[in-house]
Amino acid sequence: MSMATSGADNGLQEVRVREVIGAGGGLSPENGPVLAARVQDEVLKGEVVVDFSGAGTLSSGFTNAFVLELRRFRPLDEWKRLLRFEGLDSVGRLVLSRSLRAVRELQEGR
């Protein structure tokens, strides 16, 4: 088991955001691609839970960079099937959902 991931009993891989980018790392856009690369590595083993517990505040710059980098690896529709997000507060859910929507619209040419 690596420091930031573990195979859950139900076969899901887990990526603990705080352990990948540190507490407060969600404020820096430079950390978005770092997290996306870790998620991509883990999704090769199966479905992934991305756990934001204790990661702190997320900026739109971070979530935009994270989602755009995920999109480089595969279409967002595939990620929807492969990922589950946990440990987000209401603001974090809002920021992430706006980034997902914006990238989806960009992908669709709107």
Sum this structure up briefly.
The chain is of the alpha/beta class and 110 residues long.
Structural domains: how many:
1
Based on CA inertia axes, which overall geometry fits?
globular
- Class of secondary structure makeup: alpha/beta
Number of helices: 5
Could you give the order of strands across the largest sheet? 1-2-3-4
Strand content: 5-15%
Q: What is the CA-atom radius of gyration, in angstroms?
A: 13 Å
Write down the secondary-structure element order. EEHHEHHEH
Q: What is the typical, i.e. mean, pLDDT?
A: 89
Distance between the termini: 42 Å
Tally the beta strands. Answer: 4
Helical content class: 40-55%
Largest sheet: 4 strands, mixed
Oligomer: single chain
Low-confidence stretches: 1-9
Walk me through this protein's architecture.
- Helix 2 packs parallel to helix 3 (60-73) and helix 3 (60-73) packs across helix 5 (90-108).
- The chain has a four-stranded mixed β-sheet with strand order 1-2-3-4.
- The chain has one domain (5-108).
- The protein has helices at 17-21, 31-43, 60-73, 76-82, 90-108; strands at residues 5-7, 13-16, 48-51, 83-86.
- It contains five helices and four strands.
- The protein has 110 residues and is α/β, with parallel strands linked by helices.
Note the topology.
Elements: E1 5-7, E2 13-16, H1 17-21, H2 31-43, E3 48-51, H3 60-73, H4 76-82, E4 83-86, H5 90-108
Parallel strand pairs: 2-3, 3-4
Antiparallel strand pairs: 1-2
Helix pairs in contact: 2-3, 3-5
